[in-house]
Amino acid sequence: MNRVISVYSGKSNQLRIKIKEKLIKSLENSQYNYIKNIPNVLFCGIKDSTLGQYDVENNLILLNSKLINYDFEIIFNVALHELAHYITINHVSSPHDELFKEVCTNLGAKDGFENAKINITKQEKLIDKISKLQALAASPFTEEGMSALLKISELTAKYNINESCDEDEIYMVKLYEAKKISTKQNLLARIVKELTGVVIIKDHMEGNIKLLAFGSFEELQVADYLYDILYYKIEKEIEKLKKSNPNHYKGVSVANGFYLGVLNSIKLKQKQQKDGAEISKALVLRCEDNNLKATKLYYSQYKNVRSYKVKSNAKFNSSSYNQGNEYGSNLEIERGLSSGKSKLLLE
After folding, report:
1. Torsion region of 342: left, alpha or beta (phi above 0 gives left; psi -120 to 50 gives alpha)
2. How far apart are alpha carbons 124 and 113 in whole angstroms?
3. pLDDT exceeds cutoff 70 at 159
4. For residue 152, what pLDDT is reported?
5. What is the distance between the alpha carbons of residues 334 and 313, in angstroms, rounded to a whole number?
6. Terminal-to-terminal C-alpha distance of the chain
7. Helix 142-159 crosses helix 121-137 at what angle (to 10 degrees)?
8. Sign of the Cα pseudo-torsion (226, 228, 231, 232, in order)
């Protein structure tokens, strides 16, 4: 499953609306005005070297969240580049061939934005300079701090850069989607929540039900990885259990019991470890903070969104619960996250 970790903030929400409106106008004023539906635009945590990409699987235009504080024309031209990919996805011999570049031009993209790589070093240097000036502006030396504040105002006004980079923001990733969310998937989500401090909700909009996780980008990277690796590991153990005694271990209650056992053992292990109480408290506070930000920046946009609960009528196998409890107490998870840096790309 190709998951997208998207970001929501007051500024990014406004930008997404503005970008999509301008993309629609660009289409209407081009030879592609027969296209009536275009992909949604999301700011997300894609790799640093990538400014944008068209996500074919999810039909989304993805923009790197670091672009949020860039000049709007840069952001919009990156979005035009990705819209051109959407238009030409089934008609080009290579991603950035002459046909693709022609579509970029017809849509009104500025020179350079039809290429696979672009140079926005000047903009990056300005943002870095503003960040340093912001630190200086907090200096206890009044004259020096005032000078820095004036310089920030000058640069942001001259180059149309938003210096406020610390506003509330929340990242979101869709962990799972189905017509019906099973008890074991709910329990797996609770395990991930216990380990990371993310907040998880059930989204009943647009047909299928979705489990959405909210938190910082780093928390969601971990949650994304844990959800998959834990599911793989636990399902393997359940299969072993069923094969060991097919007559006793059968039906959904076996998986339900095993997952519940793993959940309770992880809770207990957290309490028993050194500084366990402090860690648990910190995770609870993180979850509360994530919930407040999600409510403010995401939930408020929609209706029919609620926190999930395991159904009270779910069936649990007591023997598999004990097996899950034992398995969870000895559970080890391999590290599976990495990062790297390269040139700025448009995909």
Report:
1. beta
2. 17
3. no
4. 46
5. 34
6. 19
7. 150
8. negative
CB 184 within 8 A of CB 321: no
Residue 231: which of 177, 192, 283 has the closest Cα? Answer: 192
Beta-sheet strands, E only, within 83-151: none
pLDDT score for 124: 52
**What is the four-CA torsion angle of 87, 90, 95, 99, rounded to 10 degrees?**
-60
Name the least confident of 69-73, 76-80, 186-190, 256-260.
69-73
Q: Collect all residues with Cβ–Cβ distance below 8 Å to 13 and sequence separation of at least 6.
A: 297, 301
Name the 3-class secondary structure at 7: strand
Q: What contacts 258, CB < 8 A, 6 or more positions away?
A: 234, 237, 238, 241, 317, 320, 321, 323, 324, 327
Rounded Cα distance, 16 and 13, in Å: 5
Token pair, residue 183, equals 């008890």
H/E stretch holding 262 reads helix 252-272
> Greater confidence, 148 or 29?
29
DSSP 48: T
Radius of gyration of the chain (CA): 24
d(CA 339, CA 346): 18
* Count of other CB atoms within 10 angstroms of residue 26: 20
Backbone φ and ψ for 205, nearest 5 degrees, come out as -80, 155
56-69 tens-digit pLDDT: 988 999 999 888 88
Phi, psi (deg, nearest 5) at residue 195:
-85, -20
Token output for 56: 């074919």
- Tell me the per-residue pLDDT of 261-306, one tens digit each, with 9 for 90 and over: 999 998 888 777 666 567 667 777 888 888 888 888 887 766 555 5
Least confident of 17-31, 96-110, 149-163, 294-308: 149-163
Instruction: Examine the pLDDT at 115 and tell me if it is beyond 60.
Output: yes
- In 3D space, the residue among 321, 315, 172 whose CA is nearest the CA of residue 261 turns out to be 321
Average pLDDT over residues 68-75: 86
Q: How far is CA 55 from CA 50, 58, 95, 233, 265, in A?
A: 13, 6, 13, 29, 38
